[in-house]
């Protein structure tokens, strides 16, 4: 089953260590403010609070590992269909 997932970062809790950007630089990047943001389709950083971007299937493991290792517990991966968090601090 390949359900579409998306990911967003709660910058309020981000420590800026950059683990996510090491694991999945295609999805995460640190901005000059020292915080991590997700990238949109055109590689632009999405800076609106709560902005989400699709998780490409080939990068799913890297994104999940990022969420698991994130020291700030601030990477949230959720199903697009119903918005339920499947990996991250609010996952069941
Ligand atoms: S792993 Fe978490 S705390 Fe670290 S830079 Fe990424 S979002 Fe921020």
TrEMBL record:
Its cofactor is [4Fe-4S] cluster. Pfam families: Fer4_15 (PF13459). This is Ferredoxin. SUPFAM superfamilies: 4Fe-4S ferredoxins (SSF54862). Ferredoxins are iron-sulfur proteins that transfer electrons in a wide variety of metabolic reactions. Keywords: 4Fe-4S, Electron transport, Iron, Iron-sulfur, Metal-binding, Transport. GO terms for molecular function: 4 iron, 4 sulfur cluster binding; electron transfer activity; iron ion binding.
